[in-house]
Structure to design on (1035 residues):
């Protein structure tokens, strides 16, 4: 991409991560540029808006040390693209697609635009293939299917990364030969980066993994590129090479903060909590890239991880994500404190595509009814628990006591499975046996379906 | 109007500023840039026009051409709309796919409807007949389900000189009037202008959704509007889709406005397989889908609801009962906000433009039951049911509040119910229907004079349950009076069997009014007889543990057809058993 055609010493203003350049004739919206400093240092820039011969450029590596007298802007003639090939497997790149594993650059088979194009809704294939994650709270209650976008809503200090790795490890088994993993990490700590490298190696998926890692100390604006590069790679592997790709994006909160930084620098009218008003649409251009296409073999299953600031699910980042994704897996601090792993707070969890992936021939007949029953029993158990906190156990009926007991057992045994893997049959059988804590009249029509 | 050719000056997000546009008109369509992207003029200042561009603007360069011919943004109307799926500016998605791409490439040009296709045409008018706007010239069997009526477009009247007799296509006029006016099989209409009708009629019949909680507790009138606000995952889309499937509609226009691609795929694959409860024919035969998913260009998202409602009006004008389902109005409002902020307009509340409510009104006000144009006095209607997605699930935000001004019914969805998998997660306390009094006569006449009584009783029962729950919080359930415990149990039963309704159940997804009414009948028979037994000294446990309770809870498993005898049988059983147990 270093083919510099025209150069302009035309920087007029610099604010935050943005420079305003003048006399840029024929610049394209979204075009990549190189900003060259007197030191010879080159930085990557992208044109965000154009007015006559002026353009606003965001500089990935930040604007410090750029000046308006001597720095040079050189448009590259093309929008952001990434070079892609099958040799990317097993490799680790930075958030902008450059190798950081000490190995040479890959020789691209082709270049692809990283913004991607929206899938034609009429070309999509219905996601209906059950992925066994081995986690009861997911498989049993919030089933994941191929081509789904299912985020993990985490809180500071909750084990979301561990859960994601466990899912990748266990899903690998059910997905077998055509499985590929893409990690797009934004603003993660070096400890987390280390954890991901080590775990991917340990679970033996590294040779089927492509990792793009932008660490907390790396340029902020680069984070806007990382998920797009990751998803473009995923599209190549899924729709051109037939892989079932699982994309893990973490931490979307860092991505959104980068988006906010640009918005503020552009003096845009801020939306809720000063995140840009178009954040919904922007996130959608990432999340909607998951899916399947009719007549093509592969699929993109997307698992974004985000940290809910202050554990607040109504914060714009989880809120807008939940409005786009096909459900959510929510981690709960209460369960985590109780030592339950994975601490999945099932009440606010949801998989909207669950119904397509379960039932006879896929998981088991009666799966839906069982899941619903577990949900309503657990909900009632939690109500009783709240009641006990106010009136004590004395005021409870025999039945309420049973619900209370059910909720405890359900959390301890069904959710808190630890690091072990469960087959879907084990999950469903456990669910059924937990329901037998309750009197028969409470669970109409379920008993017969065991087996 | 002659061609005006300007040049791109500025580009920011979905908006483009063009210079050299002197003479261009507001809200007319332009072709933008070398790829001829579609755009619409939304502001004019001197020789500069600002456009909202309906396709991705990435890659556009200052200096490229902008051309306008002075035409407004139109939809094409005629046979072939049904069963089809379009984007927000009515580009046909199947046909785009047929050009060999699975993605929405920029600058794709495909005809909206197939002008070459030859349709069977049965004329209803003949040479020499006088026609006026709305006169039905003849019919085309568009689908097995829907007869397309070819109408004289608004503004045209005269005497027929010539009319086709057996077939018609878009290639030649279908009818010529004596003054030389040609009327085609297809007509165009600007999306932002409502189609004329003779008069609006009052709402006095319900729009039947088949969903108990709506039809019984919170009905919307045919020609009315309901809004469905709720946080993410509370069930808005399922409500919209369930109504698209099972409501008593002749025509369904479904607008997926800024939502998910997979949800549309679901409809596209399911609808041809599902049967409309009225006719038993596949659902897609009465459906048009407009979809502009969240990741498709926002300007086209903004246009999508108007494209949808214009197509709805066209079918209404034929005398059909049309339902327009929009998911979600909030995404439309956000598109409006994004474009407004690019124009650097003065923002109102939460950054939405001050004209948010006005624009929203120009959409909702196109609902209604009307006497159509034409000489036969036919009646058509558009019922609008739209989802609202409030940030953080907080209904006090501007879009929900603006939409409420136009809503005759509010179906508020509640995350707490959704978490418990109580679906539809309608909060019966905060929701309302303003139509109930207007519909009362209809209920008396068509369902039963007792229907309204039952409804009131159900509301009271649920209300009482809430009070009792608060009391339990203080004193514990054991301290409750027996009568109150019975109330609690029966209220729970009503929630389980009546208010909950699975959209996925084969027997229960659609309920006739008859089934709804009889279900309530059974529930209150249970309550009345149990109360009487309690008074006679029967233990409360005996009553609430009775196997009859389980039988009531299983009522959902009986279809509409088998329901009446089953309900009667069960009531008899309840009367028999509760009437004879003696204890204590
Ligand atoms: N009537 C119903 N019967 C059974 N399940 C339902 C019903 N309504 C909703 N659900 C369940 O709730 C899930 C979420 O519903 P839905 O997708 O309609 O939410 P939504 O309000 O449209 O969310 P968003 O705003 O994010 O689009 C569904 O996938 C389904 O599992
Ligand atoms: Mg929805």
């Amino acid at each position: 991409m270093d083919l510099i055609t025209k150069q302009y010493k035309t920087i007029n203003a610099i604010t935050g991560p943005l420079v305003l350049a003048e006399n840029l004739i024929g610049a394209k919206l979204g075009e990549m540029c190189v900003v060259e400093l007197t030191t010879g240092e080159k930085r990557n820039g992208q044109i965000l808006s154009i007015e006559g011969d002026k353009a606003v450029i965001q500089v990935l590596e930040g604007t410090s040390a750029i000046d308006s007298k001597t720095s040079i802007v050189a448009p590259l003639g093309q929008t952001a693209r990434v070079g892609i090939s099958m040799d990317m497997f097993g490799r680790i790149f930075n958030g902008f697609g450059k190798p950081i594993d000490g190995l040479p650059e890959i020789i691209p088979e082709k270049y692809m635009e990283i913004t991607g194009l929206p899938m034609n809704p009429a070309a999509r294939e219905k996601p209906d293939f059950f992925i066994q994650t081995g986690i009861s709270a997911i498989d049993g209650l919030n089933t994941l299917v191929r081509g789904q976008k299912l985020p993990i809503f985490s809180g500071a200090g909750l084990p979301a990364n561990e859960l994601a790795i466990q899912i990748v490890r266990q899903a690998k088994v059910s997905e077998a030969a055509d499985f590929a993993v893409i990690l797009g990490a934004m603003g993660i700590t070096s400890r987390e980066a280390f954890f991901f490298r080590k775990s991917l190696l340990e679970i033996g998926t590294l040779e089927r993994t492509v990792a793009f890692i932008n660490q907390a100390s790396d340029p902020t604006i680069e984070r806007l590129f990382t998920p797009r590069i990751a998803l473009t790679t995923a599209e190549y592997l899924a729709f051109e090479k037939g892989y079932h790709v699982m994309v893990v994006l973490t931490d979307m909160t860092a991505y959104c903060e980068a988006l906010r930084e640009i918005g503020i620098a552009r003096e845009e009218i801020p939306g809720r909590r000063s995140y840009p008003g178009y954040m919904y649409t922007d996130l959608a251009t990432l999340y909607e890239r998951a899916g399947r296409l009719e007549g093509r073999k592969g699929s993109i299953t997307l698992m974004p991880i985000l940290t809910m600031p202050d554990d607040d699910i109504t914060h714009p980042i989880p809120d807008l994500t939940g409005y786009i994704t096909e459900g959510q897996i929510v981690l709960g601090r209460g369960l985590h404190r109780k030592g339950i792993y994975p601490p999945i707070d099932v009440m606010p969890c949801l998989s909207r595509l669950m119904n397509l992936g379960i039932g006879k021939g896929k998981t088991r007949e009666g799966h839906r009814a069982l899941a619903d029953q577990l949900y309503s029993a657990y909900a009632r158990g939690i109500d009783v628990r709240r009641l006990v906190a106010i009136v004590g156990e004395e005021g409870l009926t025999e039945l309420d006591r049973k619900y209370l007991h059910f909720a405890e057992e359900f959390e301890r045994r069904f959710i808190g499975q630890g690091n072990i893997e469960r087959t879907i049959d084990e999950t469903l059988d456990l669910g059924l046996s937990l329901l037998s804590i309750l009197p028969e009249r409470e669970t109409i029509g379920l008993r017969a379906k065991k087996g | 109007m002659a061609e005006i050719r300007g040049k791109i000056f500025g580009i920011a997000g979905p908006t483009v500023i063009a210079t050299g546009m002197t003479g261009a008109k507001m809200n007319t369509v332009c072709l933008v840039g070398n790829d001829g992207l579609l755009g619409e003029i939304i502001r004019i200042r001197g020789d500069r026009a600002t456009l909202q561009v309906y396709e991705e603007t990435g890659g556009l360069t200052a200096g490229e051409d902008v051309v306008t011919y002075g035409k407004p943004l139109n939809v094409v109307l005629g046979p072939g709309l049904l069963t089809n799926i379009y984007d927000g500016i009515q580009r046909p998605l199947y046909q785009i796919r047929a050009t060999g791409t699975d993605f929405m490439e920029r600058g794709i040009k495909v005809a909206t409807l197939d002008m070459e296709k030859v349709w069977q045409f049965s004329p209803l008018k003949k040479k020499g007949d006088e026609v006026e706007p709305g006169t039905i010239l003849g019919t085309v069997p568009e689908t097995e389900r829907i007869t397309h009526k070819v109408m004289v477009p608004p503004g045209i009247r005269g005497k027929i000189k010539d009319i086709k007799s057996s077939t018609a296509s878009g290639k030649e006029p279908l009818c010529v009037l004596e003054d030389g006016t040609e009327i085609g099989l297809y007509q165009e209409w600007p999306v932002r202008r409502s189609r004329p009708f003779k008069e609006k009629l009052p709402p006095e019949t319900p729009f039947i959704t088949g969903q108990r909680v709506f039809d019984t507790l919170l009905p919307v009138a045919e020609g009315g509007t309901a809004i469905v606000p709720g946080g993410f995952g509370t069930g808005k889309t399922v409500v919209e889709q369930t109504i698209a499937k099972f409501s008593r509609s002749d025509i369904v226009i479904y607008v997926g406005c800024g939502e998910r691609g997979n949800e549309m795929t679901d409809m596209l694959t399911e609808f041809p397989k599902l049967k409309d409860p009225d006719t038993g024919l596949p659902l897609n035969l009465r459906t048009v889908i407009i979809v502009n998913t969240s990741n498709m260009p926002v300007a086209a998202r903004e246009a999508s609801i108007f494209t949808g409602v214009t197509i709805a009006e066209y079918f209404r004008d034929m005398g059909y009962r049309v339902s327009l389902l929009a998911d979600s109005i909030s995404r439309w409002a956000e598109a409006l906000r994004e474009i407004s902020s690019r124009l650097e307009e003065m923002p109102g509340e939460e950054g939405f433009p001050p004209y948010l409510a006005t624009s929203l009104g120009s959409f909702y006000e196109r609902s209604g039951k009307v006497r159509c144009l034409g000489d036969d006095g036919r009646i058509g209607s558009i019922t609008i049911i739209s989802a609202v997605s409030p940030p953080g699930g907080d209904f006090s935000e501007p879009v929900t509040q603006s939409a409420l001004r136009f809503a005759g019914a509010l179906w508020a969805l509640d995350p707490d119910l959704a978490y418990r998998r109580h679906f539809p997660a309608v909060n019966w306390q905060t929701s309302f229907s303003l139509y109930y009094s207007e519909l009362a006569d209809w209920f008396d006449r068509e369902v039963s004079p007792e229907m309204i009584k039952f409804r009131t009783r159900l509301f009271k029962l649920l209300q009482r349950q809430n009070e009792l729950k608060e009391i339990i919080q203080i004193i514990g359930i054991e301290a409750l009076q027996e009568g109150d415990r019975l109330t609690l149990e029966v209220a729970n039963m009503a929630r389980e069997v009546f208010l909950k309704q699975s959209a996925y159940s084969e027997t229960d997804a659609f309920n006739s009014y008859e089934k709804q009414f009889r279900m309530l009948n059974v529930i209150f028979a249970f309550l009345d007889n149990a109360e009487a037994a309690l008074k006679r000294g029967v233990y409360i446990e005996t009553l609430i543990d009775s196997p009859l309770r389980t039988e009531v809870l299983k009522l959902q498993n009986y279809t509409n057809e088998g329901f009446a005898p089953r309900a009667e049988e069960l009531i008899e059983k309840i009367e028999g058993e509760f009437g004879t147990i003696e204890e204590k």
Summary: The CA atoms of residues 42 and 51 of chain B lie 5 Å apart. Chain B is about 35% helix and 20% strand. The pocket of adenosine-5'-triphosphate (ligand 1) is lined by residues A 323, 350, 352; B 230, 232-238, 259, 389, 423-424, 502-504 (CB under 6 Å). Chain B has a mean pLDDT of 94.
